[in-house]
Amino acid sequence: MEIEFLVPLFFVFLTGLCFGSFLNVVVLRAFSNESISYPASKCPKCQKPLYWWHNIPVLSYIMLRGKCYFCKSPISIQYPIVEFVTAVLFSLAYLKFGFGIHLIYLWAVIFMALVLAVADIKEKVIFTRHVYVLAGIGLFYNFLYTMLNIKEPAITWLNNPFVNSIEGLLLGAVVMLVYFLIAGLLAGGKMAMGDGDIYIAGALGACLGFEKTAYMLIFAFLLQILITLIAYEYSLFKAKDFKIFASVILFIIIGIGHCFLNNAGIFAQNTVIFILYTIILMLVALYILKDTFARVWNLKDKNPDAVLENFVCIPFGPALVAAAITVLFYLQEISVISQNFINSYLNFIGW
């Protein structure tokens, strides 16, 4: 690679590391209700102020071997992970879009989105001030873009980036609100998910616009299902419930086999195989659902409050953020893959 390419990328990566370090400060001081600028960084255990070389992103964690220099308490792995992820995303944004105002906007969106995701993962808490900042970034940027390009023929008072940003905000918030209400009904009137996800989806929608928000929501739900399935399997394994654990694994294997046989044209050539395979897949799925709901209703009969405590609860915020960042970077590729999938399905059912 040429030096002209590597040097800017190196400095972008360093910039991302520094912002990642600051991101940790923003999240942690939101929990402690302290200012992000004062006092200086300190050990949360012994409260001693850190030296400057204790705050070098990633490198300090390695040099200190993951322990406080003063009291030797373990340092959370969150610090280097957040720093590294921020640096990688900043670098990907630069590689995808190059230097410019749009890159600064993307960095701001990525930064605030990660703040929300980290807080949600850490304590399942969303701070509304962070949501308002993210939504404000999206609305302001799209308003500014509209005003600077107001003379373009394609921009009208009904069709412009700012209106699209508002539509994205409404779409994200309304869809998650409906999901929130449905989840509450299924949980017997209890809070099955946090209302913070409504705010996150709305804020991300303001940054993405209507079309990208629709893709974000679809991808986020699929990602959340995958994450929940993995966590559910892990909980079954820990509880030594190997019967249902094996059933879920069998369902996944059969489902993957279903896709391969379909792509190979086996189902198109033999309808009997397709019907038998589909029936097996449905029977395994019904067995899993029956067992899962039976366990939930048994908990309800014994202790209604234990349902949500014993069931797998995964915060939705990180999935929304991951989906939004993916859409920001790869909307065109996602559109092509989605269209190919829809066309393949329509051809398969004979439409």
Characteristic terms for this protein:
351 residues; 2 domains; 13 helices; 75% helix; 0% strand; globular
Short description:
The chain is built from 13 helices and no strands.
How would you sum up this structure, described in words?
This protein is mainly α and 351 residues long. The protein folds into two domains: 99 residues, no CATH class; 249 residues, no CATH class. Helix content is 75%, strand content 0%. About 2% of the residues have low confidence.
State the low-pLDDT regions, or none: 304-311
Structural class comes to: mainly alpha
Helix % is over 70%
In oligomeric terms, what are we looking at?
single chain
Distance between the termini: 48 Å
Structure annotation, total helices:
13
Mean pLDDT: 80
Count up the domains.
2
> How many E-type strands?
0
Layout of strands and helices, then pairs:
Elements: H1 3-32, H2 59-63, H3 78-97, H4 101-123, H5 128-148, H6 161-186, H7 196-208, H8 210-238, H9 242-263, H10 266-269, H11 271-302, H12 306-310, H13 317-348
Helix pairs in contact: 1-3, 1-4, 3-4, 4-5, 4-13, 5-6, 5-7, 6-7, 6-8, 7-8, 7-13, 8-13, 9-11
